[in-house]
Amino acid sequence: MAQPTSFDILSLPVELQCLSISFLDPATLVSLSQADTYFRRLIQPGRHEIVQRLLQLECTEEHGGGLTDPLNPPSWIRLASKSMRGRWACTGCLRLLPHASFDNHSLLRLGYRKPVAGSSAADPITDWGAPRKRWGRRFHQPKESEQPLQDGDAERWGSKRHLRKCNECRFQNRELGKANSRERGTPAVPIQPSRGLAFASSRDRFFPGLAEHVGLGPLSDIVAGSSRSQQFWPTRMIRCPGCTQWQEMRSFRLGTKNSRWVPIYADGEPDFCAWNWDDTKLTRSVMDELRCNSCFVDEHGVDALARVLSGWAKKLMRSEVSSAEFALFSGWEAVRSNLKHIPPDYQPQFEEILRKHEPSIPGPINAKTLPVYKSAHDELRSAWDYMAAKEEGSFSSFDGHGFDQWLHHYHVYEARWELMTKLHAVVVRQPEVLAAWALS
Ligand SMILES: [Zn+2]
Ligand SMILES: [Zn+2]
């Protein structure tokens, strides 16, 4: 008697084989077509099937998954950690690529967003063998059991993903750098906006990771701890005509300490245009001659790159060192200008402390004076804490912005000043380190 065998799709008539295949998801369909010659001939996967497969794969958890909260559109800050490993489908070059390969609109506009996790759009079946419908319809019918989207945009959500192209594909199609948008670069050197990110300072924005690179540890915690608020900076991807790689704007030594600065260039006179950090006027020819750090080194040598980067970093760091100095003494100024809000019984004591330390504060900061300032701070803090314990908030009109932070986390301000000063010294004395950082 014959042993029962496992189900073999090949034992079915071809019509039933096709019917079974039409229930597969796009990724399985393409895998099956690669199983052997018979299925390759039967399925004959074309560009349409490959695109469907990519649009399915970009929704898998492995590639960053779909959205979990459709009613709160994503911001790049919220997606920051996710988008580091996330991939999106380019239906031009048929690849899954990181966010930096696309402009923001190609990822965040409603029609281009990844669909909601768990929806039928994120978990589709193939339309293989069916009369070819308009793109998107089949992908975007919500399941019956799904909660309808409150904003009424369910139909459009992700419905244009099959049109999404990466920056390079759009460049090759001559869609980028058109002259009618002078902040998007030139046809030879196009600029595409990318996600915005929070940075503690302009130095952090244009030289991220430099402190760690020279062995000074992460500055970010210390900077954040001294109550400096993080600022939101747009980032921009630029295509280097030398190596044809897309890289962030900082790799082209482009930008100023103003986070709203836009690299808009003059295309003839008298056009309004931007000026770079080194007072270079952005003209069409300056833009066309932009090269990434690596290509700059090929042309001018590594010493030249070190010189330019050192000049830029020094410019950005000077104000950061000054602000670290200012912050170190900020609490003293707060006490001085708010003396009248201190309970009268305690005013003479604080007047005395101020009188005692006034000659040296603010003063030069160095290894000798730092301990002096520290002991003055200790004296002020003890007196303040004693008063606060006795008065229990009856002096709440004291208007010292960040004063409490300064009073009780003074070591953070000291550490910030020390690190900024050391980093500044490295930038001045060892410019070669900057070139090594930029090329690493
Ligand atoms: Zn592409
Ligand atoms: Zn290059």
How would you explain this protein's 3D organization?
The protein is mainly alpha-helical. It has 3 domains: 9-144 and 153-169, no CATH class; 178-292, no CATH class; 318-436, no CATH class. Helices cover 42% and strands 6% of the residues. It has 18 helices and 5 strands. The strands form 2 sheets. It has a 3-stranded antiparallel sheet with strand order 3-4-5. A two-stranded antiparallel sheet has the order 1-2. Helix 2 (26-33) packs across helix 3 (37-43), helix 12 (293-300) packs across helix 13 (302-337) and helix 14 packs antiparallel against helix 15 (369-391). The longest helix has 36 residues, at 302-337. The radius of gyration is 30 Å and the shape is elongated. Residues 134-150 have low confidence and may be disordered.
